[in-house]
UniProtKB/TrEMBL annotation:
It comes from the Bacteria. Its EC number is 2.7.13.3. GO terms for molecular function: phosphorelay sensor kinase activity. Residues 324-377 form the PAC domain. Keywords: Kinase, Phosphoprotein, Transferase. This is histidine kinase. It comes from Flammeovirga pacifica. Signal peptide: none annotated.
Length: 616
């Protein structure tokens, strides 16, 4: 057998057989005891161990085939090459079961004294650390009885605690059950575990957390090490944290606002509450993973610059106390525009003071915006009513006074006069037309039906009803064949009737009256143009002709209520379009008005009216 590997050992080693014959020793042995190989190889170990008692001790261990460790503290006396005696500590290991070879490790006692002293110092430090540790450190046997404890609770004596069950010192049956289950689990699974119990004290409950580590020998748990730590502060901190998180989550859940945290470096939302999903329609993971550019794409084009300025103000802010507010339109997942009001502030900053995240909230203010819009429209409507009442009372009063005076005059003369009766008739007709116009103006707010309208047929009806006026004015009316469109027949009829009446009334009597009607198919609208070569409208009056009771000419020269074009404007608005007037090269007027293509056929009495794509 090759024993050369022993030269790698730092201890003095030699090999003997069962007859105590020296077969080999390593270089460390030579250096420690001064022998050469030729001095001892194949000699009895008695040449080395001259003390009879030491020889007998060694021989007894060899005969019994017993293993000896340094911890067994077996000492021998050996003779050095210079004939002096050296005490050594012995360690014996049998090399193999097949060969009766034994390896003896010898360490001079002075070296062991140094080692033992160092070990003693280390042990002293170790026990000092354990004894003065605030944690309770136990060691239990397999029966859960205390073998060791570093210190005990007030009122207990350490010597009396040793040898008793750890379960005896628990405050309740419930806590005993918890601890016993944890210890049994560690014994059965051979794995570490932990448990927590609480004790009552005058200042409230004290919470202890214990880590259990099994000590395993021959695949069996023979002991348990326990480290018990007071975790009362951590427990109450954790409870406070749980309660705070619960409060925050409840507050976030029940608020009417969407709440979010936007991380600037990651360029996405790292938190959002349920209200965000309810308002915007995007699920929480969709909203959280929405990049800055994606969010900006959902902002209305007219509000994007406003949002960019808002973000810039946030980035320039260097504190968490300043909040910034902005109103904007956002397209939801259902492709509906909602007005939102956001209030944001800086939330987290890096060590250089640069903003890292933004905490914000937003609310749906669509109803508020619509209410303000309705309020504005209501104020405008009230003003129109006020103007209407004033003008109507004035216009109605004039023909009534004329009729009353002429009737009194006729009665006082004793007989009716044809001239006076003609004046009375005109006054009554004027009053009748005024009442009709007033009713038309009132009814122009009440379009609730949309149908397929044949424009050619409609214009034919208008011309038939105005046949007398057409013949009197010798007007030439021209238009091409028009398609059928969705609109309100009677509303559109009144628009063309009013425009033709105005063309007849305000014609240039020195020229032949011409009227030309055209239709343009333009994007989402049908655009009509109605052109005449009449007396025209002054440029500075073009924006006012659609206001109620607007009259640009003397009543005696051009009769009328001033409501015709106002009626046209209301009707066109309800058809989803706009109307305007402008001069043309003939000196007359061109009226242009549009009708939305998105109107849907709806009959009176239907439950739903789709006005999402129109201005009605």
């Amino acid at each position: 057998m090759d024993f050369i590997l022993l030269n790698n050992f730092s201890e003095a080693n030699l090999i003997i057989d069962s007859n105590l014959t020296i077969l080999y020793f390593n270089n460390e042995f030579c250096e420690s005891f001064g022998y050469n190989h030729k001095d001892l190889i194949n000699h009895s170990i008695s040449k080395l161990i001259v003390n009879k008692e030491s020889f007998n001790t060694l021989n007894s261990f060899i005969e019994k085939d017993k293993k000896i460790r340094f911890e067994d503290n077996i000492y021998l006396s050996i003779q050095l090459e210079n004939k002096s005696i050296q005490g050594v500590q012995l360690c014996i290991n049998k090399i193999s079961d097949d060969d009766d070879f034994y390896r003896l490790s010898l360490t001079p006692t002075e070296d062991f004294d140094k080692i033992n002293q160092k070990n003693k110092e280390n042990v002293d430090v170790y026990y000092s650390l354990i004894s003065h540790n605030e944690d309770h450190i136990f060691q239990l046997d397999a029966h859960k009885e205390i073998i060791y404890i570093n210190h005990v609770a007030p009122g207990l004596i350490k010597e009396e605690v040793i040898g008793t069950s750890v379960l005896n010192y628990l405050p309740s049956e419930e806590s005993k059950k918890v601890v016993e289950e944890a210890l049994d689990s560690s014994i059965q699974t051979k794995k570490p575990t932990q448990y927590q119990v609480d004790f009552d004290s005058p200042n409230g409950k004290i919470y202890y957390n214990t880590f259990v580590t099994p000590i395993i020998e021959n695949d069996q748990v023979v002991k348990l090490n326990l480290i018990t730590r007071n975790v009362t502060d951590q427990y109450y901190y954790q409870q406070a944290l749980v309660q705070r998180n619960h409060f925050t989550e409840k507050l976030s859940q029940n608020t009417q606002h969407g709440v979010y945290i936007f991380n600037i470096k990651k360029s996405k939302n790292i938190y959002s509450n349920n209200r965000c999903e309810e308002i915007l329609g995007f699920k929480r993971n969709e909203f959280r993973n929405m990049a800055n550019s994606q969010f900006l794409d959902l902002i209305h084009k007219d509000d994007k610059n406003k949002i960019i300025r808002h973000w810039q103000r946030l980035l320039e802010s260097n504190d968490t106390t300043t909040s910034f507010e902005v109103d904007y339109r956002f397209k939801t997942k259902e492709n509906k525009w909602k007005w939102l009001r956001s209030r944001d502030s800086g939330f987290e900053f890096d060590k250089h003071g640069n903003l890292e995240s933004i905490l914000g909230s937003f609310m749906d203010i669509t109803d508020i915006i619509n209410l303000k819009k309705s309020e504005k429209e209501l104020i405008q409507k009230n003003q129109e009513i006020e103007d209407f009442v004033y003008s109507a009372s004035h216009d109605i009063k004039s023909p009534i006074n004329n009729v009353a005076k002429l009737i009194d005059f006729t009665i006082s003369n004793g007989e009716p006069s044809g001239r006076y009766m003609e004046v009375i008739n005109k006054a009554v007709q004027r009053l009748n037309h005024l009442v009709i116009d007033v009713l038309d103006f009132k009814n122009s707010d009440e379009i609730i039906e949309f149908e397929e309208v044949d424009i050619n047929s409609l214009l034919g009806d208008v011309r038939d009803d105005l046949k007398t006026e057409t013949l009197e004015s010798k007007a030439k009316i021209s238009y091409t064949t028009f398609p059928k469109i969705v609109a309100n027949y009677f509303g559109l009829y009144r628009v063309f009737q009013n425009l033709m009446n105005n063309a007849f009334k305000f014609r240039n009597k020195s020229n032949e009256l011409t009227i030309n009607i055209e239709l343009e198919n333009k994007d989402d609208f049908w655009v009509f143009s109605f052109t005449d070569n009449g007396i025209g409208i002054q440029e500075d009056k073009l924006d006012y002709v659609f206001e109620p009771f607007t009259k640009l000419h003397n009543q005696s020269e051009y009769s009328g209520s001033g409501l015709g074009l106002a009626n046209c404007k209301k009707i066109i608005q309800q058809l989803g379009g706009v109307i305007k007037a402008e001069g043309n090269k003939t000196g007359g007027t061109t009226f242009s008005f549009s009708i939305s293509k998105k109107l849907q056929i709806i009959k009176k009495g239907d439950d739903k009216i789709d006005t999402s794509s129109s201005k009605i």
